[in-house]
Amino acid sequence: MALNRKIAYIDLTTGEFKTAPIPIEMRELYLGGRGLDMYLLYNHIEPGVDPLGPDNVLTVSAGLLGATLASASTRTHIGAKSPLTGFIGSSNMGGYFAPELRWAGFDHLVIKGKAESPSYLWIHNGEIEIRDASDVWGENVFDTQELIRQELGDPEVKVLCIGIAGENMVRYANVMTGMKDAAGRSGMGAVMGSKNLKAIAVRGTMDLEIRFPEQALEYNQSLIEHISSTKFAKIMQKWGTMFIYGVTNTTGLVRVRNFQLNQQVGGNIECEHIEKYALGTEGCYGCIIHCRHKYQIREGPHAGIYGQGPEYTSQGAFGMEVGCNEFETVLVANHLVNKYGLDTLETGSMIAWAMELYEKGILTDEDTGNLKLEWGNDEVVLEMIKLIAERKGLGDILAEGPLRAAKKIGKDSIKYLIHVKGMSNLHSDERPTPSLALGIATGSRGSDHLRSRPAIDLYHLPQELLRKIYGGPKPYDGPLSSDYTSYEGKPRMVLWQEMMYEAIDSVGVCKFHSIFLSPNLIAFEELSKLIYYNTGLEFTPEEIWDIADRAYTIERLFNIREGLTREHDWLVDRYFDEPTPVGLPIVRNKSIDREKFKQMIDEYYEMHGWDENGVPRPETLEKLGLDAEPSHKL
Amino acid sequence: MEMILVVDHEKCTGCRACEMVCSVKHTGVNNPTRSRINVIKWPMEGFDLPMLCQQCEEAPCIAVCPKDALSQDLVLGRVTLNYDLCIGCKMCVTACPFGGMGIDTVVQRVIKCDLCDGDPTCVRFCDPGALQYVPASTVNLMKKRDAGWKFSELMKKSSLISSNE
Ligand code: SF4
Ligand code: SF4
Ligand code: SF4
After folding, report:
1. Which of residues 188-217 of A touch B (CB under 8 A)?
2. Under 8 Å CB-to-CB from A316, ≥6 apart: which residues?
3. pLDDT averaged over chain B?
4. Is the CB of A284 under 6 A from ligand 1?
5. How far is the CA of A524 from the CAs of A249, A545, A546, B52, B102, in angstroms?
6. What is the domain count for chain B?
7. Hey, which residues does B51 pair with through a beta bridge?
8. Which of A258, B21, B28, B37 is the one with CA 20 to 30 A from B50?
9. A187 phi and psi, to 5 degrees?
10. In a domain, A511, yes or no
11. pLDDT at A281 over 60
12. Same-domain pairing of A385 and A474
């Protein structure tokens, strides 16, 4: 059964491991993937541990619907205490790893301790081995995977690994599989590096039972036909997330030159440029959206580069943020961060911040080693990526992430950081959009557009449609506004998306198939059916919401245990004090109103059943069955 | 009308949905090793190639089968396998040049694509259209159209160049 996959506890210090079944009650409480990982982290990590020390615990998991007939049932979730924020670390990625993990018999890996020397895990059909990785230590992300496949003598092996950034414990190093699939946010690659864990290789040939095969096939086909018929899918199939840039930049909703402008002028980085380089598109396991381009640079100084992507995030990181106007720079930079295993968003943000500091004279040629950190100096941007991954010169400081780097650089460098909880913001400008601002301010893993962003708020959807989506599955009859500049009713949208993303991350299906960038896709109702046909577990849409609520609240408890207070759910001053300078009239001259924002947060806490300090009330914990956590059931 | 299942690897995104549904359809479980179709992937080069039984006219598997368990099904245009006659010697697996004959190690029998008795499940799930089930008589027409389209693009470009000169 899809439900008989095991959990493996692996101690890298002693080399010992044990496996255990996952009881149905735990599925009923947390589903799997991110949800169950959150329970495991809360139960296995001692408060206050050094995120880069042996006591941190790393989880790797497949979702409850991994490799089942559930559209893109592909995501791998990775969790630990974050070395970037000191709060919950959590990130997921597409590709082919999670299905293979399930065929190898496992759903969750709980990895503790630190290996004495570079090692990798080899997991196959219920067996686990810790193997020597000294031959691949120092290799890039792409070569590491191929070399391990060669060593194991099976081209079907799937590998997730870190690059040199993870080895060097860059605090925002990612974990990668394939050419571009990255668990990018919150520094999970640094945690692997700190454990001397270069990679995890899996291969499995074990049956994954589908509870009701005929119905699952039929339902999945109707779902796929529906998804495929949406305008969103058609655009994504052609352009990937790069399509977003055209819309947001024209409006003035992007972050340019750190935070100086909200619209890029003269940027040659629209999605259409990909046509010159594209070789086609790739999909993740079971996915019909196939949002990623395969691209090749055929001429010029970077000729020969083959990569996949780039995403909107890389257009932001290496286009508008750093003032680069050339599409090819985005392609090269995207390739480099993937090769070194760096989070694209954080890397671009750190470089953009350093550029603003250079402009303001806070960083001088002496600090930069004579690198001219000027806006639009494409070659310097590419060089900085390398220096960060190698932790050389200024790169060593930037590798520490926003808050630590600001401390090292001193002066008033901290004033120019664009972050929440020590994690950089996406390259979108949320000053005109209170709902999006609330989402990044409160996200459990730090500033984040994938924790709760109600992106469809940008579409000015009619009231009836908003009501249809946000009015359920738990009843809500408060206000909902079609105006994205309004503060009204937005906490509900943020809360709803939070529950949606927690649920979809726990079943391991890609968010692009859910209500995220399109109002017409999967939500609680569809999840309920998918779970039933594939696993036989019966949950109403309301029950799925409750599970998501439980998992999200345990993330909150984790953060509170690590010292989170209400002050952490807040934006940097520039959001309140500097109005947007450009853009369409609807977004121009906008800043966030402190008082109204405070009220929004109050409202948001109230909806969660948290007190005015953002701490879950005893009755909330009781209602969610969290009053006895940590309960050490797994 | 004889239909054939054709693969256009240029349209394939490597998603392996075809594998998943073939396995579930035939076995009720998702296990790629029990699927009749497999997508061979070169993940670092971005090249994907779905491979399955070619339903050969002069089928090597039929030729080597000592029990006549394999035969031509002219109605569905497939090579069909009769499990009542099959002794599981796996000669067909050795003989097939494409890996079209596989071994299901769970039920211990050889397996091959049966075209889902005329309604190929993999085709239904291949959204990009890399797998198609088309009349055998017009398959070349389809390919001509595809090739012609590419050719016409080139022609347009070249006439653009010459008109610019
Ligand atoms: S939409 Fe993109 S990221 Fe999501 S599963 Fe499909 S290919 Fe992967
Ligand atoms: S379903 Fe189609 S696109 Fe996906 S791997 Fe199979 S042949 Fe390729
Ligand atoms: S036609 Fe049917 S049996 Fe043949 S590969 Fe496709 S799904 Fe499998």
Report:
1. 205-210, 213, 216-217
2. A245, A254, A255, A345, A348, A426, A427, A428
3. 92
4. yes
5. 32, 7, 11, 37, 39
6. 1
7. B38
8. B28
9. 75, 30
10. yes
11. yes
12. no
Among the atoms of ligand 3, which is closest to the Cα of residue B123? 6
Whether A30 and A97 share a structural domain: yes
Please indicate whether, in this complex, the C-beta atoms of B28 and A210 are within 8 angstroms of each other.
yes
User: Is B15's CB within 8 Å of A290's CB?
Assistant: yes
Boundary (domain end) residue, out of A393, A424, A455: A424
A261 and A337 in a single domain? The answer is yes
Residues A197 and A262 in one domain: no
Same domain, A163 and A256: no
Test A290 with B128 for CB contact under 8 angstroms.
yes
CA angle B112/B118/B119 to nearest 5° reads 95
The 10s digit of each residue's pLDDT in A428-450 is: 999 999 999 999 999 999 999 99
Average pLDDT estimate for A162-185: 98
Q: Do B46 and A179 touch (CB under 8 A)?
A: yes
Contacting A residues, span 83-102, partner chain B, CB-CB under 8 Å: 96
Ligand 3 shell residues, CB under 6 Å: B 5, 22, 25, 36-37, 52, 113-116, 120-122
Q: Is A242 in the pocket of ligand 1 (CB under 6 A)?
A: no
Question: Domain of B60: which CATH number?
Answer: 3.30.70.20
Specify the amino acid at residue B132: Q
Q: What is the mean pLDDT of residues A215-219?
A: 98
Do A247 and A147 fall into the same domain?
Answer: no
Residue B153 domain-assigned (yes or no):
no
Rounded Cα distance between B85 and B95, Å, is 18
* Token pair recorded at residue A213: 């095969």
Q: What is the CATH number of the domain that holds A248?
A: 1.10.569.10
ipTM comes to 0.95
**Mean pLDDT of all residues in A135-159:** 98
Position A274 in a domain: yes
Percent of chain A with pLDDT over 70: 100
Q: Which of A399, A424, A449 is the last residue of a domain?
A: A424
User: Is the pLDDT assigned to residue A40 strictly greater than 70?
Assistant: yes
Comparing CB atoms, the residue among B10, B16, B29 nearest residue A207 is B29
| Within-domain flag for B95 | yes
pTM for the model stands at 0.96
With CB atoms and an 8 Å threshold, state whether A283 touches B31: no
Among all bound ligands, the one having the nearest atom to the CA of A96 is 1
Determine the Cα–Cα distance for residues A187 and A50; give it in Å rounded to an integer.
13
A186: closest CA among A93, A79, A111, A114? A79
| Domain residue limits at B43 | 3-134
pLDDT in tens, A48-97: 999 999 999 999 999 999 999 998 999 999 999 999 999 999 999 999 99
Pair A70, A152 in one domain: yes
Instruction: Of A269, A278, A265, give the one whose Cα is nearest residue A308.
Output: A278
Cβ A310 vs Cβ A331: under 8 Å: yes
- What is the tally of structural domains in chain A? 3
Mean pLDDT of A454-480: 97
Domain encompassing residue A500 = 434-624
Pocket of ligand 2 (CB under 6 A): B 12-18, 39, 48, 50, 125-126, 128, 130-131
Is there a domain that residue B143 lies in?
no
Whether A479 and A502 map to the same domain: the answer is yes
